[in-house]
Amino acid sequence: MGGFKTAHAGWLTLMSPPTSGLGSRARHDIVVKRPFQKVYPKGMPANMEFKIGRFAPKDESAKLFREANVLYWAKALLGLVYDFIDRAVAGASDPLPFDIPRVRFVEAGLALSYYQDNSKPASKVTSARACFLLEEVIDGRDEDFVKYIHNMDPNPLLDPDESGYDFALFLAFTQHVQYAKTGGLVFISDYQGNDKLLTDPQIMTHPSVSEQKDMFGGGNIEKAVSEFETRHICNHFCKWPGFELEEFGGEVA
To answer: Which intervals hold domain Alpha-type protein kinase (predicted)?
Structure first.
């Protein structure tokens, strides 16, 4: 159980499986996620033990469609970074002085279960009873799962002497590229997972992007985008001349 969703071990078998990715084999191990709300006994303080409450199907599906939308855009924005890197490296006169990590976001999809109205033909289902976010499993031990960058700060959560710090610097660099290539409008935050697979991102957007429609949910802290140039600290990835990125922030990390 996290702050907003519960996660459960499950498996997926599709009637017409794809050739690769989520559901491409029978009994494909997955993570099944559902949003929840804390339900406290009536009249009791919020620090008391709570029960897990589920949302109405309409609200649950809206929340998870938004989560899936965030993952969709995060995949695209990370792909933009790798396209940028590959073009820069191909056109540079000097080789990269460091390795580029290759990471991606988990494969995911939505599943809805329905009540069946027996008075109607079997092909016509009625309203949804529940919605689930299905995600690829991130292998490894619990302690290997790391939050690298929080959505309140565009710099690594890890200290320089901690394992994974250089990878966190790379993720901070990806934010710099996304910000620069979108004209200061958007970047990924809440980077978490391991150095091969990431999950549960947030999309940070400039206030002009969504016109107050809150496209990406409560984790979209617009102030983080408007303050990016003063708060982001460039590191050795950002500073490589072949990338030709404008330097932001304070001292180079």
So the answer is: 1-248
Res 4: pLDDT: 84
From residue 144, how far is each of 141, 164, 195 by CA, in Å? 5, 10, 9
β-bridge partners, 130: 113
Domain region containing 206: 5-106+141-243
SS3 62: helix
Q: Using one digit for the tens of pLDDT, what is the confidence trace for 232-247? A: 999 999 999 999 999 9
Annotate 67-128 with DSSP letters as a single string: HHHHHHHHHHHHHHHHHHHHHHHHH-SS--SSPPP--EEPPEEEEEEE---TTS-TT---SE
- What is the crossing angle of helices 165-181 and 57-91, to 10°? 90
Whole-number Å distance between alpha carbons of 202 and 72: 11
The answer to whether the beta carbons of residues 181 and 84 sit under 8 Å apart is yes
Strands 104-105, 197-198: pairing is: parallel
Helical (H) or strand (E) element with 58: helix 57-91
pTM: 0.87
Phi, psi of 167 (to 5 degrees): -65, -40
Asked if residues 193 and 171 have their Cβ atoms less than 8 Å apart, the reply is no
pLDDT in tens, 212-231: 666 777 667 777 888 899 99
Is 121 a domain residue? no
Asked if 173 and 237 count as a contact pair (C-beta separation under 8 A), the reply is yes
- Residue 210: phi, psi to the nearest 5? -100, -5
